[in-house]
Write a structure and sequence with these properties.
Number of helices: 14
Oligomer: single chain
Shape: elongated
Helix content: 40-55%
Order of helices and strands: HHHHHHHEHEEEEEHEHEHHHH
Structural class: alpha/beta
Distance between the termini: 125 Å
CATH superfamily of the largest domain: Ribonuclease H-like superfamily/Ribonuclease H
Strand order of the largest sheet: 6-5-4-2-7-8
Number of domains: 3
CATH topology of the largest domain: Nucleotidyltransferase, domain 5
Number of strands: 8
């Protein structure tokens, strides 16, 4: 075979294959262009359909955004502010972000509607629109006594580092003492000053423990009926009861450690720790008795124990010490109260008159022997309805709280001296004699006006009182 002819034939085959590939590529290109044109046409149709349908939907969506969405945002902002500042928003400092958010809501709802929902005044909204949301440098009134405020903040931080509770009343007393030491006589430490001081320095009042009780309608009905009954018995023109012999007795729990339930604390703190000596579970029981006319009768202090170790301190004549295994009232101690407290006062009842004793339904109070013994002194007994003592018992309404506040103040004064001693890490607990002295001092310091006001629930029927 001729080699030249073989070479020419191979070249022809290569050329034919190349032409076939070119034709295939052209066909594929035409197909792709056709599909592209179809897609463009379909996309154009979709755009035309969207242009026809979207305007109405967009108008509805924009209307929803400007009204309902703005209202939702305003309510959410209101809830956030209430969590930070409480329900009153009249005297808070607005940040620039909050101002801008409020202005955006006002553009959608109007200043008046925004003011009603959020609680910001309309004048502030107009002023922010005019002057802008950023606070001007150097604006605001300068502090008159910045060094005094620094010392007060330092005192709060020191108390909280030691874990000591600091009530607002105690803090104001310390501020007045500090100002007096620095010879600042013109400073008035009022509640308004304390509120602004807390806002300036981001300090809040925190509660150590929480509790909430919502009375039902059945209990409210019991309260109304009992109040009307006692009111008619005492205030009617034909009343046979001597008001000086209308009395209320009750037992109250007095802990050995009595820290304040509220303390000043920096905002944002997750834990509110208040140090004690570890004896808050140990307690004494005090039986207090008060009259309608504002007198305090003899009191009984119940101490845990068998009475082997006698109290070493001097106890006033109008206080009696009783012992019990669980530091609570029992039938024997209730009988002692009748003999040592009630009988002494009941013997002074004028002839032709009757007395009235208000008590709760504790098992020692409803004992038949105790009731017969009380009635033998020409006294009637009115037992308070169940679950209503916080609204109907004068001692629970006003006297017990005042008594415990005074006791707590004495304990805090003592604990502040103890906690400042660098002797050891463990705190000494107050002795039994010291606690007893605080109890009778606190009972004597309860003002007569407080006792009289606690009986107001039976002196008028305008409103149902709220218990402590």
């Amino acid at each position: 075979m001729n080699p030249i002819s073989s070479e020419t034939s191979s070249i022809d085959d290569f050329g034919q294959n190349k032409l076939i590939k070119i034709d295939l590529l052209k066909d594929m290109k035409k197909k792709i262009q056709k599909e592209k044109q179809e897609l463009l046409a379909e996309e154009k149709n979709i755009d035309e359909e969207l242009d026809r349908l979207l305007p109405n939907a967009f108008k509805k969506l924009s209307a929803r955004t400007r009204e309902d969405f703005a209202k939702d945002d305003a309510k959410a902002l209101r809830n956030e502010l209430e969590l930070l500042h409480g329900k009153s928003l009249l005297h808070i400092f607005w940040s620039s972000d909050q101002k801008e958010r409020i202005l955006a809501i006002a553009d959608a709802l109007g200043p008046s509607e925004t003011s009603k929902i959020i609680g910001v005044s309309e004048s502030n909204i107009f002023r922010w629109k005019r002057d802008g949301c950023q606070r001007k440098k150097g604006s605001g009134r300068p502090l008159k006594h910045p060094l005094l405020e620094k010392d007060l903040i330092k005192y709060i931080l020191e108390c909280r580092e030691k874990g000591m509770g600091l009530s607002t009343k105690r803090f104001i007393a310390y501020a007045r003492k500090l100002a007096k030491d620095k010879k600042m006589t013109q400073v008035k430490f009022s509640r308004g000053w304390l509120y602004k001081f807390r806002i300036r320095n981001r300090i809040s009042v925190r509660k150590r423990s929480t509790g909430y009780y919502k009375p039902c309608e059945a209990i409210e009905q019991k309260v109304r009926e009992f109040r009307e009954k006692i009111f008619n018995m005492l205030q009617s023109s034909e009343s046979i009861y001597d008001l000086d012999h209308v009395i209320n007795m009750d037992e109250t729990f007095v802990p050995r450690d009595a820290p304040s339930n509220h303390t000043l604390e920096l905002k944002g703190s997750k834990k509110v720790v208040v140090n004690t000596t570890g004896k808050e579970k140990e307690h004494y029981t005090v039986i207090l008795t008060v009259t309608y006319t504002g007198k305090r009768l003899y009191s009984i202090i119940i101490i845990k124990g068998k009475g082997v170790k006698k109290v070493k301190c001097t106890v006033p004549h109008d206080f009696h010490i009783n012992y019990n295994k669980k530091s609570w009232i029992n039938a024997r101690i209730m009988n002692n109260w009748v003999d040592d407290v009630f009988a002494i006062h009941a013997k002074k009842l004028p002839k032709g008159k009757k007395g009235l004793l208000l008590m709760d339904n504790h098992q020692t109070h409803v004992d038949d022997k105790i009731k017969d013994k009380i009635k033998s002194y020409n006294y009637d007994i009115a037992f308070l309805p169940a679950n209503c003592t916080g609204k109907l018992q004068p001692l629970d309404i006003g006297v017990n709280k005042s008594f415990k506040d005074i006791y707590s103040t004495m304990w805090q004064n003592w604990f502040e001296d103890i906690i400042n001693k660098p002797t050891s890490n463990k705190f000494e607990s107050p002795t039994r004699e010291l606690c007893i002295s605080w109890i009778y001092k606190a009972a004597k310091q309860v003002q007569k006006e407080v006792i009289e006001n606690s009986w107001n629930i039976y002196k008028r029927l305008e409103e149902v009182p709220q218990g402590n």
